[in-house]
TrEMBL record:
Organism: Thiothrix lacustris
Transmembrane segments: none
A GO molecular-function annotation: glycosyltransferase activity
EC top class named in words: transferase
Family from the record: Belongs to the glycosyltransferase 2 family. WaaE/KdtX subfamily.
Pfam entry (one): Glycos_transf_2
InterPro entries membership: Glyco_trans_2-like (IPR001173), Nucleotide-diphossugar_trans (IPR029044)
Record has Glycosyltransferase as a keyword: yes
Record key words, sorted: Glycosyltransferase, Transferase
Listed name of the protein: Glycosyltransferase family 2 protein
Alphabetized SUPFAM superfamilies for the sequence: Nucleotide-diphospho-sugar transferases
Domain named Glycosyltransferase 2-like: residues: 7-95
Source superkingdom: Bacteria
EC annotation from Swiss-Prot or TrEMBL: 2.4.-.-
Amino acid sequence: MTKISGLVITYNETQHIRACIESLLQVCDDVVVVDSLSSDDTAARATAMGATVIPQAFLGYGPQKNHGLAFCKHAWVLSLDADERLDADAIAEIQRLDLVNSQYDTYAFRRKNLFHDKWIRCTTWYPDHVRRLFNREKVRFSEAQCHEKVESAAHTELDSHIIHYSFSDYHDMLHKLNKYSTQYAEDNIGKKKRVSVWSPPLHGLFAFLKNYFIKGGMLCGFDGFNISLLNALGSYFKYAKLLEKQRYTGGKP
């Protein structure tokens, strides 16, 4: 099996870091943790488990992960968020991959998003493909402050899974919705992406219809409705905040 480096970025992840590194060590012999100057013992726990810990003030999600790539020992990198774990099927599939002769430079996994310890199999939360195994000598993460992804043309999707302990409760979802929508606006204001007064409501409405009707949120009861609604609000406020910046800050980030 080709040697693989694991990569994680962290900030105050005491609750998750041990299980995340244990998961990576199932297929990696090298783990790099880029820590955004945590105030808890995240860095100490990671170091105790044999990870290489790189202190770095937060640069944004994409730049932070790209910063960590230089410290990885191997060409192939498996990137997990601290609240993610490899499912058993992903471990088995990674062990079977012939990465030396691969025609791909990126592999995506299906992500099981858990909420209240329940796998949400509806809305855009599943299958939620995420590119996490890649050749760092050929590809990198986008420089986006939020919702970064590995930029690749030669990629494929695997049927195996990553488990994601996504949000602890609705309060946590609202908090992250606010953070991510702000970061989206900051990412796109510099690109001169123009939006109109119709952009927020239309994007929000489409997001709700897609999540609740097309992606089956109606089949997931109370959580399905609320997740569809919050996804719609997230889409609405991404464009509302971008419009706000264009109108009232002179187009400056």
